[in-house]
Write a structure and sequence with these properties.
With about 300 residues, this protein is mostly helical. The chain is built from 14 helices and no strands. The longest helix is centred in the middle third of the chain and has 23 residues. It is globular, with a radius of gyration of 19 Å.
Length: about 300
């Protein structure tokens, strides 16, 4: 294995370990394009990890700032990065002309995680998601064969994936001191933080919290709908990957819905047999992120 192939193998391992749904979908990409998506994922995964698990002897802010500086320096064609993920990233960025400004937006959002623990409104949360998710979708556009007109759809898909994760991980994020759903929605559903904390502690959500989760599931599905036209604005050879990603993430929402919108009892997991069925259906058509059930809890 050559040096660069080994660098991309490191990125692949990070993706396989941490982003299982995403990894399954990207495995359907043409072999020559997979490593570039894995490189982007590896950079963003390490960045996210440093916020919660900083390097020994360093604060989270210092760890993230040092990594940001390394990443931005690695984007220069004549740079000689030492980290294998950054060597892979450098090749990917130079091969596809990915804009450095997208990485700056991403790191600004990661920095916000160090200071912002609540988001007042959907507009406020979406501002954060611009840097933490939408720009990542935009980074993938040239790799997937899209053009400038593809970028809004890629951005919506990035947001849809992230909001799906926010809903699924609501209880886990609470235990880390963060809430990634709008506080205005909590109030609209009659839920305060004390009630939410009690639900996490007991693993039992009340009607208001279930209504909140149903609201956010609907919002995530609307983002998938907004992203769907982008399926036909990329190379035909990468469309199976995107359909699989839509399906695998969308099925997380369906699983939450089947569980009565209960997200405090444990992370929603799609059973392997169901995952295989959903994936096979996704590759033949339809809108697998859409449920045929009501999204209003009883």
């Amino acid at each position: 294995m050559t040096g660069l192939a080994a660098d991309y193998a490191v990125c692949r391992a990070i993706n396989a370990r941490h982003g299982k749904s995403f990894y399954r979908a990207t495995s359907l990409l043409p072999p020559a394009r997979r490593p570039h998506i894995w490189a982007l994922y590896a950079v963003t995964r390490r960045s996210d990890d440093l916020v919660d698990r900083p390097e020994p002897g360093r604060s989270a802010a210092a760890s993230l700032a040092a990594w940001r500086a390394e990443v931005m320096a690695a984007l220069a064609p004549d740079a000689r990065p030492r980290h294998p993920v950054l060597r892979a990233l450098q090749r990917t960025v130079s091969s596809y002309g990915i804009e450095a400004g997208l990485f700056e937006e991403f790191f600004d959002a990661m920095g916000a995680d160090l200071t912002t623990r609540r988001y007042a409104t959907w507009a406020h949360l979406r501002g954060y998601m611009r840097g933490s998710a939408a720009v990542i979708g935009e980074m993938t556009v040239p790799i997937l064969g899209g053009d400038a007109g593809s970028r809004p759809y890629a951005a919506r898909l990035g947001e849809a994936f992230q909001l799906t994760n926010f809903v699924r991980d609501l209880a886990e994020d609470w235990q880390l001191g963060r809430v990634y759903l709008p506080m205005a929605d909590f109030r609209a559903c009659g839920v305060d933080e004390d009630e939410f904390g009690a639900a996490v502690a007991t693993g039992r959500s009340g009607p208001g919290l279930r209504r909140l989760v149903a609201l956010e599931v609907t919002r995530a599905r609307e983002l998938y709908d907004a992203a769907a036209p982008g399926l036909h604005r990329v190379d035909r050879s990468v469309q199976p990957c995107l359909r699989a990603a839509f399906a695998l993430y969308g099925e997380i929402l369906n699983q939450i819905e089947r569980g009565g919108f209960e997200v405090c009892r444990g992370r929603a997991v799609v059973p392997p047999a169901r995952r295989a069925l959903v994936l096979s259906r996704a590759l033949t058509g339809g809108r697998p992120w859409r449920s045929t059930r009501s999204t209003t809890p009883g």
